[in-house]
Write a structure and sequence with these properties.
two-stranded antiparallel ribbon, 3-stranded parallel beta sheet, alpha/beta
Length: 79
């Protein structure tokens, strides 16, 4: 069987809507939560990881991911 990894890139800072990935959109669900829910429905994926920057403001993204049981990879914002 082939292992398939899904990486969702999320960051707090955005040019048009700051905090877009953690903004509540529908039924008090954040857009990142909705994305995670939909990806986790896939029967083909072996693993899901959220990738975000190491700035303190991205902690909210990390918290959402951990609450959903998803691993997080943080990296310098410049990369």
């Amino acid at each position: 069987m082939v292992n398939i990894l899904c990486i969702i890139q999320a960051r707090y800072f955005s040019k048009r809507l700051e905090g877009k990935s953690v903004t509540e959109i529908i039924n008090k669900k954040r857009s990142l939560e909705m994305c995670i829910d939909r990806v986790q429905r896939s029967k083909l994926l072996s693993k899901l990881v959220i990738s975000t920057g190491s700035f303190t403001r991205n902690k909210e993204i990390v918290d959402v991911a951990h609450k959903a049981g998803v691993d997080v990879f943080t990296h310098p914002e410049e990369d």
